[in-house]
Amino acid sequence: MTATTAAHLAPADYEAIARELDALRDEIAADLDERDSAYIHRVIRWQRGLEIGGRALLLASSLPPAWLAGTATLTVAKILENMEIGHNVMHGQWDWMRDPKIHSTTWEWDNVSPADQWKHSHNVVHHTYTNVLGKDNDVGYGILRVSAEQEWSPAHLVQPLVNVLLAVLFEYGVAVHDLELDKVQAGEIDPAETRAKLRAIGRKIRRQWIKDYLAFPLLSGPQFATTLAAGCTANAARNVWAHMIIFCGHFPGDVEVFAADRLDGETKGEWYVRQLLGSANISGGRLLHLMSGNLSHQIEHHLFPDLPSNRYVEIAPRVRALCEKYDLPYHTGPLARQVGSTWKKIVRYAFPGPRTRGERSA
Known about the structure:
By secondary structure, the chain is mostly helical. It contains 14 helices and 2 strands; from the N terminus they run H-H-H-H-H-H-H-H-H-H-E-H-H-H-E-H. Mean pLDDT is 93; it is low at 356-362.
């Protein structure tokens, strides 16, 4: 590993870690039943009810109380759809139900990023190469320097401002993520493939804009402007929340990155340890877990991305105990601390250096 925190592990330790985590995954997978199915159906019903309620309130959006209530309700609905439903359904977490309406191959989320492109950039690339420099495009999303191991350039001086803009427009950043623009510029990707992806993104953006910024505002008649403002606000708030949760799961504190050559001959146990060292959790209650899509359990999600999200809360204590057993860090902390730690990195690494490992988390 690039990191030194796993240097004490012997090959036998990695094998034992793989056996224990494989056994844990098999145990949970074998225990999935109607309780889990009822959970996701219940969340979807609540999400759709909240969206309908929010849209209904916005029919009177010229009244400040109705605007505030409608916008807040619509925002919650969009967060639930994006985080606990869309993200997790497209991971295949509910494919075991064999429900064609709640399946990774059929779900298209309320987001400008086409599902098939997101599944490639996220499920395939990110979850395979988690935090491997030059392989995982989610390390700084290609525009931010979040580690001492990343080369500094003068463009990074403005990255705190760039990160604010990325948060507000996060769904658009996610939408272009699978284009792999660095490879496009290097001529490594067929231009025809890039054009096809751009057309798909354009179609998705058009559908989303018509729904949120034209159709529903028109339904409110003379209150078009206030309903349009509500739709813009709900989408921006959803984007900021998703950005915050995802960044807090990947960049705070002592979360580590890895050199590409460490992939050579990587065993299952080494892959598991890379997920443990390259992820961070957010401590909190049931509401936080729900609204974060259970990505407050980012460590467990990286270990078992296709297990239903509602099971992470029961898996987490056992993963933490395994980390203690093998003297590995288990990165976790309250939301405010993780947000502060993430922003501290973004501001610090906007400037040159440090290049020594001891200063990685400064």
